[in-house]
Structures are given as structure tokens and as C-alpha cells.
Amino acid sequence: MNGWWGKTLVVDLWKKRAKELELDINFYSSFIGGRGLAIRLLWELAPMGVDPLSPHNPLIIASGPLSGLPIPSSGKLVVASKSPLTGGYGDGNIGTMASHHLKRSGYDAIAIIGASEKPIYLYIDDGKVEFLDAESIWGLNTFKAEEKLKEVHGRNLGILLIGPAGENGVRYSTVVSQKGRSGGRPGMGAVMGSKKLKAIVLRGTKEPPLYDRNALAETSKEAYNAILNSKGYRAWIAQGTMATVAWSNAAEVLPTMNFREGVWEESASIGGDLMEKLKVDRRGCPYCNMQCGNVIEDLSSFESELDYENVAMLGSNVLLGDLREVAELNRMADEMGIDTISLGNSLAFYMEASERGLVSERLEWGDFREMKALVPEIARRRGLGGFLAEGVMRMASSLGEEGRDFAVHVKGLEVSAYDCHAAPGMALAYGTSPIGAHHKDAWIISYEVSTDRFSYSREKVERVVYLQNVRGGLFESLTVCRLPWVELGLDLQYYLRMMKHATGIDWSMDDIAMVSQRIYSLIRAFWIRERGSWRRELDYPPIRWFKQPLTRGSLAGKKLDLQSYDKMLSMYYEIRGWDERGIPRKKTLSSLGLDFVAPSLEASVGLS
Ligand code: PTT
Ligand code: SF4
Fold it and tell me: Membrane spanning segments where (predicted)?
């Protein structure tokens, strides 16, 4: 087999043993890798209805056929599990040297089951696993723990680790690497923490099997050059994703005051132009010539790596208009291993609850001192921090009907940084994202605001499906960064060519669409199996966007229309081959080779 090792390393933390799971080429040609591999393994290895924080819930670290190879922006990995935040499928994509080392370890993925009694970490050297004592690094933040591990094992390795938030089961804790790259928004850090697993240290030196190494090197060189010579390269290098602050504010989609509004008069105080003036460094993921991690010094003079989502959620959404203060909260989130998007949402939700008099402890909009004090409290689940650590959906349920009106999440995952009062296509993207509200699968908003913004057209629904298939299907399963394509227009044909050189298989975009369709239907089946029921309302965006119109800017008065959204959702289901409830039809499952999921769905919800 070329492009894949054909093997997953299954690590059992109870027995402190590892074994190989061999998978054949049909498996890989059906699911490719990364997210595809993760959901297929999860379906097999997770006992039905498993508690996400029980030792029986597997944690999957998966690479794809292109990750970790010397090709553009390939230093990525998928971390996946059943989510303690949503109760459904959860994953994230992390840029890390661990990608390079996993690729050279002799395995495509690592599946971790069981739990240790005492804190441990895994040291995996060319596929050989050691279970090492982590007592001395348990409780340390991710930056310090990573340093300690490098002192012991050297610098030429890749490390995935959790902070105090993951250790203490914060429902939106993440897996962190390289002091500022974070992945697994829906609580993948908490899953790792529930296993008492502080870190995975990877070292790999084996040559990955490739179909045509020379052709891959040639195409890769061409692609690197195409990126360097692209029109937007200079602007990208200057601001990266931070340019989106100004764009979002101009488009009136910048989340402001818990997604109450889409414009903020102080947005320049957290924007890309200011960041450029304060910038002290630029970082990024391995094998990338777009290095988009812009670093500034925060209020305490520590370095903090900024991205649009972090800044919007910890800036405009909580009304904090000082970039160095925002940077400080962001750096603390990385240290603690907390997702910034859910953190910004949770703080904003609580601020609004406080403003409405629904909670006894006050938290004012933009109160930096209080937020700064709260971040470690959340990570350690102390006092009010314990409430915020539960995330928006659970906080809202405890506040009754009124709480639900301003709870900004889908399926339990807090919404990322685009307000959708006046963006029905993006609302559908959030509603149907396979992990809950996240923009990674379909970022239709830039297209939407520049075209027929307020329409609920079939064309938009088709575009959402297309974007999901490319972003959530192709990029998440190849497991490489999508930004060369999204931001600089790198032709998708490069990826198909590189897949051919790596695997020997000639894929067309139609083949990819089929694989994506398979992955989306399997993920949907997993959600249904784990919940034991399904209703289409789970695919609705937050109620706030239907009920409470914008009051500021040129879009004042705008809100979403439920009936029109419902029509879009029905079109979406029809394109995906799902019934009116959002459940894959029997014939869809069959045509995708997913018959094996039918019995459990038949038993719980019935198939049409
Ligand atoms: C991603 C989500 C994003 S998406 C951002 S900023 W973005 C936030 N970053 C966080 C952070 O940082 N620290 C922290 N404690 N929490 C954070 N939460 C948020 O997590 C990220 C980049 C970015 S920056 C984006 S868009 C692209 N995402 C990709 C993706 O999803 N898939 C893919 N194939 N390529 C991608 N390329 C880009 O990668 P999640 P990273 Mg990420 C500090 O993790 O769970 O997927 O959520 O991993 O290595 O930091 O790269 O404006
Ligand atoms: Fe990482 Fe940014 Fe490069 Fe993507 S573009 S690989 S997120 S540094």
C-alpha cells in the first residue's frame, strides 16, 4: 500500500499495552484518512451510548495521506472523539510537528482506549510505546509541560498535550501543541484528561511509503511557488486571519455583545492594522510557507499568537477593546488548554445573564480584570469558573426558558465568530456542521455578503454542501491546511495530483464528493446512534438570530426567518439523501457502503 501505512496503533491505558489494527486499501479508499479514518474508527471502537468522559470513549489522533509530507501546509492532524460538550461527534485540526513524526512512525492513526489510574504520558518512538509517569507535569500549564518534556526527550519530536482545563474536564478544553496551536474545540482535551493522559510525545524516523516520490516533490515545488506568487500573498503575510476583523465589521457580521449585534465602533482597537504595529514575530505549522500565526506581546509582556476567531470572541463579543488585553486572555487560554471560541461565548453569555439579573454574581461587559481572574478558575473548575466550564448550552438550561433565548450554540458547540442575523447561508453552515457550530466545514459568508445576501436560495444550499465536501471532506481527510486554497486560491487540482503521487490512486472531485458524502452520513449516523433519537431542530442555528433583530448599523431590524430557513434545511437534507427528520435514508446508506450502520439506526429512530 502507498500513501498509508495501513495500520492504526491501538493503545490500551488500562493494560498499558499497544497493538496494531490493520486496515485494507478499501477502507482507505472509502474514507481517505484524518476525519474519515477517525469517524470510522470511532464507530467501531466506541461502545454505543458511551459516556464521553468514561475510559471507554476512544480518543483518536489521525493523519491523512498527505499530512506531514514535504508539501504545502501539511503539518496538521485530526483529534477526534465523542464530545463531552455536545454528546456527538467532535473533532479538531491541529498544526503540529507531531504530524511529521506520526507520518514517520509506521502508523496512520493512534486510537487510545481505557484510562490510567495515575497521570501518565505516552512516548512513542518509531511506533514503540512507553507509558511514562506524568506526576511531575500534571497540573502544569501546556507551555511549561511542553518545555519539561523537551528537556527530557530532546527537541526533535512532536508533542500533543493538555493543560489544567483538560485535566479538570472543562467541556471545551482542547489539545495543544507548540505553545499556541490548539485543536479539538468540542472538549477533546477533557477526553484526554479523563484518561489521565497528560501528553503524547511522538518521534518518527521511518520513510513513509509513497507511490512516486519524485513526482510528489515536483508537484509540491510547483504548489509552493504558486502560493508565493499568488496575488494575495503579501497581504496574507502581513495580517493572516487578523484581516478578517475589519472585513467582518464592514460586512456587519462581527460578533458583538454575545452575538446581539454585528458591528462595533471600536473594532479597530482589536484589528489587523493595530496587530501589524505590535507584531513581534510570526509562527506557523510545519511545512507551511504562509506562516499565519501573528505574535504580539500581551499586557504581561508574554508572547501571544493571534487569529481572527480568538480576537473576535475575546474582543468584540465581550466588549474588550484593547488588543494587548485580548492577547493576554488568548495566551492564558493556550496555557490552560481552553478553546477561545467557546470561552468568549461562555463569558459573553454569562455577562448577558448578569445584565438580565438571572445570576447572582455580576460580570460586566469588557471587565478585563474579572475575565483574567476567571480563566484559571474555569480551567480548575473553581467557584464561578465551575459554572462557566460547562459551556453555554448547560449554563442556559440551568437558567430556564429565558436563558435559551440568548444561548449562542448549535448542538452544544458554541458558535464561531460570524454573526448570522443577516446571513442565512452561513446560518445553515453552522446548523449542519458535523461537530456543532463551527465555520471550518463551510465558510460561505464571504460569498454570501458579496452576492444575494438575504436570499434563502437553493444555490446557497448547494454551495454549503460543496464547501462542506471540499473543506470538511477533502481537507479534513487528506489532513492538510485548507488556507492555501481558501485564502490564496491554490488550485484544488494540486491536491488531487499530490494524492495520486502519494497513493497511486487517481481521484476526481466527484470521487471526493462521494467520500465526503459518506463521511457526513456516517458522522450523522454516529450522532443519532449516540443520542438514541433525532429531530430537525437540532440543525437550527441559535434562536437569538430568529427572535431578536439587530439594532445597530445599516442592517438594524434584520433577523432570520424560520420558515425560509426550514425550506433551506429541507433542500439540504434532500441533497444529502437524508429524510425530513435529517436521518440518512436506507438507500443513501446502501449506496455509500454504510449498510453496517442501518441496524442501530433502524432500532432507535427507524429508517425511511
Ligand atoms: C479551530 C479554531 C480556530 S479556527 C481558531 S482561530 W481560525 C481558534 N484558535 C485557538 C487558539 O489559537 N487557541 C485556543 N486556546 N483556542 C483556539 N480556538 C479556536 O480554534 C488553526 C488554523 C486556523 S486559525 C484556521 S481558521 C484554519 N483551520 C483549519 C481547519 O480547521 N482544518 C484544516 N484542514 N486546516 C485549517 N487551517 C487553519 O488552521 P480546531 P491550529 Mg485549530 C491559538 O483547532 O478545533 O479545529 O478549531 O489548529 O493549528 O491552531 O490552526 O481564524
Ligand atoms: Fe498553519 Fe497558517 Fe500555514 Fe495553515 S496557513 S498551515 S494555519 S501557519
Answer: none
